[in-house]
Amino acid sequence: MKVGINWFKKYIVVGLVVIVGLSAFFGFGVSRVIFDYDFEKFFPINDEETSFFLEHRKMFESDNDFLLVAVESENGVFDQSFLEKIKSFTQELEKKTPHVKSVSSLTNTSEQFIFVNGATDSRPYIDFEQLDLKRDSIRVFKSKELVNSLIARDAKSVGIYIRHEDYISKKKSDELIDVVQQIADNYHFENVRIAGRTIGQKFYIEKMVNEMLFFVMLSALLIVVFLFISFRSAWGVIIPQFVIVLSVVWVIGGMGWTKEPINIVLITLPSIMFVVAMSDVIHLVSRYLDALRQKMSKWEAIKKTIYEVGFATFLTSLTTAIGFFSLYFVSVQPIQVFGIVTGIGVLIAFLLTFLLLPILFYIFPSPKYITEKEKQSVWIPMLSVGFRWVIQKPFKILIIYSVLLLLFIVGVTMINTNNFLMDDISPKEQLKVDFNYLDEHYSGVRPFELAVELRDSSLTFWDLEVLNELDSVEHY
């Protein structure tokens, strides 16, 4: 008995040093966590359609690396001072905006001419040297390539197309957006709307960070409430909560050190970790308190708790972790990462619970109400009644279960799916308002490309027959 206590006291010192050291290490790793907004990672791995898409993009470049800026003028865009400001704005965007390949607007776009003899010529749609707004407006609206592209059909806004570097990083995209907004602010336009993948990326990552913090705080608050209801003491709240928070820090800090980004699925990780860790903690704390109620010493209560609850909790954690690890076989990379990280998190929560809680049990004084008054839990009579009802009514339970199962199976068949990412955003958010405006007045910001292949190897795309077919597709 004495040998066991002496060993445990040495373990307390070593264990605390190791756990505090690792916690500091992982705590620093939390500051290195990055967030990932790349929906292409949700494309199935080794899938025929994904492979085709990647090959197509390799040949024809990315179709999603652009910003579309709409500048509004309530009195109409064919006003000399407004168009001159747009011209200056376009030139500034070309010269001062980082990571940009090209900028297109009404003021720097020309109409192209090809003559019978093969000669070519061009003429600007807005000719500032011989400005004739009536003439220019007619030419602009005769060009189907410009309407709903660089000018709205109601002529109350112009569009500026900014083509930036492919696959731009979060840091670079933030720089790009900040500069565009700063330049736009200098011109004091009536209203400027900006949309595109980069601004969507910035918005979603900020939302992910904010919602992750919100989920963490909400989970922590709910756990405090449930722990207080369960144990009715500050001891029963602070000690378990300490272990739970530490589990989350270890997991997220580990992601920071390994440079594994948090994606849109993993923002739920802290909430899951809180729930899993709380389950382990409550098993251990409940049995420890029961042992104290039986007038055991701290050391005896700790031994009894580990002996009776340890293996069962280990099996629970192991099977839960295996369940998450099984997501590795889903051919979607973010889901695979989610399964692996969460599975590891479950095991870390178990490890910390059984390494740290016994130390905290021994160091901190036992709850006073436990030692002063022994009281039967209110749950025991309720659980006894429930158990007897289950034993006495097996057929009723089976019938109720079968009916509910059928209802839920029918419900599963009624689930609808869509890929409208904007449905998740409040209609009041400026980003959604801007995207909806560009969908309504322009061609939108979600690109669509159609790949056409020839079945007949004797033909080429320059054959008249093929060109006529392509023309009919384009007009359709």
Question: In summary, what is this structure?
Answer:
The chain has about 475 residues and is of the alpha+beta class. It has helices spanning about 1-30, 50-60, 80-95, 135-140, 170-185, 195-230, 235-255, 270-295, 300-325, 335-365, 370, 380-390, 395-415, 430-440, 465-475, and strands at about 65-70, 100-105, 110-115, 120-125, 155-165, 190-195.
Explain what the structure shows.
By secondary structure, this protein is of the alpha+beta class. It is built from 15 helices and six strands. The strands form two sheets. Strands 2-5-1-6 form a four-stranded antiparallel β-sheet, with helices on both faces. α1 (2-30) packs across α7, α3 runs antiparallel to α5 (170-187) and α7 (234-257) runs antiparallel to α8 (269-293).
Keywords:
single chain; 476 residues; alpha+beta; four-stranded antiparallel beta sheet; two-stranded antiparallel ribbon; 6 strands; elongated
Largest sheet: 4 strands, antiparallel
The total count of helices amounts to 15
| Radius of gyration from CA coordinates | 32 Å
Give the overall shape: elongated
Strand tally is 6
Spans with pLDDT under 50 lasting ≥5 residues? none
Q: Order of helices and strands, N to C?
A: HHEHEEEHEHEHHHHHHHHHH
Task: Give the secondary structure arrangement, pairings included.
Layout: H1 2-30, H2 48-60, E1 66-72, H3 80-96, E2 100-104, E3 110-114, E4 120-124, H4 133-142, E5 157-164, H5 170-187, E6 191-196, H6 197-231, H7 234-257, H8 269-293, H9 298-325, H10 333-363, H11 368-372, H12 379-392, H13 394-413, H14 430-441, H15 464-475
Antiparallel strand pairs: 1-5, 1-6, 2-5, 3-4
